[in-house]
Amino acid sequence: MISASHIKEIAKKAGADMCGIAPIERMKNAPPEMNPGLLWPNVKSIVGFVFRIPRGVQRGIEEGTQFYQYPSMAYGGINEILAPAVLYHVGKAIEDEGYEAFVYRNTGARGCVSDMDGSVGATLSPEEQIEVNENAKNSTAHHRSVEFTRATRPGENVPPDLQFQFRICAVACGLGEIGWSKMLLTPQYGPLQRVAFLFTDAEFDEYDEIYHGKPLCRKCGACVRECPGHCIPPIKGGKKCTASIGDYVMEWGDIDMWKCYAFYTHAGRYFNPFVPKEVWDENKDGALDLMEGKAEASEHEIMKVYTALQKYFPTWVGYNMAKCGGCIRACVSMLEKPGGCMHGRFKNPLRTRTKAWKVDR
To answer: Which of 15, 127, 240, 350 has its CA 20 to 30 A from that of 74?
Structure first.
């Protein structure tokens, strides 16, 4: 048995902002292909880590002056540098006690089913997109699922790579709750964090309770209103998803994930200052029908969007160049108001105008 407080102390010294520990049984209701309890037979505990996103990386998008820092620092910097280093340090501490540390950095598109819509087979990956150029003809495409994966021991294990739901796992570790926009909300940082996990055969002297404090999501609908693609359903009467950890029930809006993928990267006519107005107006061969509200979201439509728009702001950091942030900035702006969990945390609010900017075209 290991001291939970000792591991948390190591995690925070290594760079994690929060650390929660839970018994693996809390994830037992997950589908087999997304159940971390099936990673190996002896797993007993989950150690979850939160890495805060500096609010300042959203400042450039909020002002419309700098878009590069959010994907490079809040995605790439945390997922590729900070979080793996912390996992390594905490993992060493656990293994020095004679237990295994199954580290699991933030990743996607690794499992046998799509983490966009649950379907089986190859589907496009936002994180590692198919190159829309001649080179793609001679390279292996990256997808939302691993199309040809098979169980290595049929009847005994699940196909690799087992991909679990990070945000639900964070809730299981007592780190926060899931808001209507499907974002993880924590009492300390609202929607501004990334997470990573470690699974171990060690048991701990104490486990964190699931968060039961004051609701963090205000159900205000700001995320719904400020999504440029209208990807988030209305709170009243909108479709929702639910999941449970024992008696604890989570719910969030049934987001159009394919459409969200297109807009979080390319933002749309009024929120992407890098694409000339003439390109939107021409909409050559209907490539921007999805962005203009003339087509339903699908992998095919998204490929058309990428073909038409990627050249205007190429991917430089290994992550799609997120230009939207509408739901995140809307959420922060509301949580900073009196009664919100971020109220009083900063001397000045994120939003200093009446509403978010919009390009006049």
So the answer is: 240
pTM exceeds 0.85, yes or no:
yes
CB count within 10 Å of CB 91 equals 18
What is the crossing angle of helices 326-335 and 56-63, to 10°? 110
pLDDT in tens, 155-196: 889 888 898 999 999 999 999 999 999 999 999 999 999 999
Give me 208's structure tokens: 């964190």
Partner residues linked to 52 by β-bridges: 193
Q: How far apart are CA 246 and CA 110, in angstroms?
A: 27
Residue pair 86/49 in contact (Cβ under 8 Å)? The answer is yes
Side-chain-side CA neighbours of 100 within 13 Å: the count stands at: 12
d(CA 44, CA 28): 11
Phi-psi label, residue 344: left if phi above 0, alpha if psi -120 to 50, beta otherwise: left
| Antiparallel, parallel or unpaired: β 184-185 and 193-200 | unpaired
Cα–Cα distance for residue pair 295/172, rounded to 1 Å = 38
